[in-house]
Amino acid sequence: MPGGSAGQPVAGFEVAYIAPDGMELRRPLPEVWAVPFEHALPVRAFASYRRQRNLPGLWWSATTGGHVGYESWLERDHIMLLDFDPAVVGVSSQPFWLFWTAAKGRPVSHVPDYFARRDDGTAMVVDCRPAERRGPRDVVKFEATAAACAEVGWEFRLVGAPDPVVVRNVRWLAGYRHPRHRMEPAASRLREVFAEPLPLMDGAAAAGEPLAVLPVLFHLLWSHELAVDVSVPLHGGSLVSPGAGR
After folding, report:
1. InterPro entries from the xrefs (predicted)?
2. Distance CA 107, CA 225 (A)
3. Looking at the structure, do residues 72 and 93 belong to the same domain, yes or no?
4. Are 126 and 215 contained in the same domain?
């Protein structure tokens, strides 16, 4: 039996979710490991009200072709990074309720922030919480969620603030994530020019008028058809090379 924080046992994991037909279902955890939660509807609404401290919204996902909700800017950054990840082929927010029984029969529940499916079929459950805001009750829930995920072979990630340089770079590229920026013949020409690594602006100039080809270039970098190091600030001299694509 998995253990919670400070020796508090947890038992009887159950999962509640919304089926594609809109019906709410509740099943024991071992019965739902194959459910495609990457297509799940949110199990709770994204509240919005005056003087709200968090900032909810919708992220248009190039991976899914639809909107994915978030409840804070931290969640927004992480859904953006999941969208940018070439291994992720599906993602949903607030995918299910997880229920379990803690010490002395106390019922506990938790809704993870995201469920992601990779191209190899593996799954990942993500919770977003800054390290300085993880109170004792939060830690208990995150540890229980990690134990539940381990039971069914899902990876669990508890994430805080991502690298600010990566976020800035990916946010810039995300502005060109929509397929409308994939224009020919510029896309084919850019792939030819960057068949060997070149500085970003040098390659853009070789492919055509930079103002015309740069949006296409940024889209190809977003889609990983071309590659650039996003761990350092993106600039005109950044080395662009062929990418693996999605």
Report:
1. TnsA-like
2. 48
3. yes
4. no
Residues 117, 218, single domain; the answer is no
Domain check: are 32 and 145 in the same one?
yes
Closest CA to 5 of 127, 143, 149: 143
Global confidence as pTM: 0.91
CB 226 within 8 A of CB 243: yes
Tokens of 183: 């224009």
The 8-class DSSP code of residue 210 comes to: H
| Cα separation, 101 vs 11, whole angstroms | 5
**Host H or E run for residue 126:** strand 123-128
Q: What CATH code is carried by the domain that includes residue 88?
A: 3.40.1350.10
Averaged confidence pLDDT in the chain? 92
Count of domains observed in the chain: 2
CA separation (Å) from 116 to 32, 120, 122? 15, 12, 9
What 3-state DSSP class applies to 231?
coil
Tell me the pLDDT tens digit for each residue of 112-143.
Answer: 999 999 999 999 999 999 999 899 999 999 99
Which of 117, 135, 159 terminates a domain? The answer is: 159
Q: Which two tokens stand for residue 114?
A: 């995201």
Contact 127, 160 (CB under 8 A): no
Whole-angstrom distance, CA of residue 211 vs CA of residue 225: 20
Which of 128, 144, 159 is the last residue before a domain boundary? 159
Angle, alpha carbons 60-111-58 (nearest 5°): 15
How many Å is the Cα radius of gyration of the chain?
21
Neighbours of 174 (CB within 10 A): 19
Query: Both tokens of residue 195?
Result: 């068949």
